[in-house]
Amino acid sequence: MKNESNNTPQTEAMPYDAMLCTGLNDAAKQIHEDAKRKGFWDSEREVGTLLMLCVSELSEALEADRKGRYANLQAYNECEKADDIFESDKEVYELSSFQSLIKDTFEDELADTVIRILDLCGARGIDIERHINLKLKYNRSRERMHGKAY
Questions:
Q1: So where are the chain's domains?
Q2: 71/21 Cα distance (integer angstroms)
């Protein structure tokens, strides 16, 4: 469908699902409480520093991708199922499995990025679910590629 006034192609907005993004506000509260318990919020933190910590996690994800470091969830899941580990050794075994199969991988660094973002949202009382849903609704109303030619 074309808009006759400026010959720009128009797209019909997709229906909006208000429940598309749920659970992040609760996660933000829990993540922020954990960060406070670990001492990361003993003093006020400057927002620029917090944002750059998010960026640094993305840089680490890029580096992991470049080096081909990806999580091996299949092997990790097998480690979690191991029954022949004494209960007293289970925590050490799980930690070792995480460190060798998940830590510092592309997926792990993306998770760190999301955790830092949600911590910031928890600290600032940001209703991130509402903001994501508002942005998704807006983006669905925009034209293909948001009108940019790439």
A1: 46-136
A2: 25
